[in-house]
């Protein structure tokens, strides 16, 4: 069972590894990121960041679709992490049964607009969020289960 699809440009780090793992009682973390999947050093670092009792799979976004497909019917609790809204859109476009997306952390980039202390969106990100909202995808903004969840809505996007 896919418990959450989350965007975090740092991919797997302490907050993701420990807070979300216990919150969802995760069995597996699936990182879908083209760069990480093709970089042995990054894969090693991500492997060190995960909790010992949780499986980790790292795959290119499109190559990971088969893994996602298997996990949709699995009894295992799975967190999917992508590094960008572009990648999240690919996953959600391919798997229409996934109806929620969490924005965990997107650091400031050129021309970014601050959404909160951990998340900044570029104009491309905002356009993707609008398309997702049009498709009735619920977008939450929450870097940790320890903080209150907030919804990203069109009215919030208009303020950016």
UniProtKB/TrEMBL annotation:
It is found in: Cytoplasm. InterPro entries: PTS_IIB_sorbose-sp, PTS_IIB_sorbose-sp_sf. One of its GO terms (molecular function) is protein-N(PI)-phosphohistidine-sugar phosphotransferase activity. One of its GO terms (biological process) is phosphoenolpyruvate-dependent sugar phosphotransferase system. Its main location: cytoplasm. Residues 1-160 form the PTS EIIB type-4 domain. This is PTS system sorbose subfamily IIB component. GO terms for cellular component: cytoplasm. It comes from Holdemania filiformis DSM 12042. Keywords: Cytoplasm, Kinase, Phosphotransferase system, Sugar transport, Transferase, Transport. It holds the Pfam family PTSIIB_sorb.
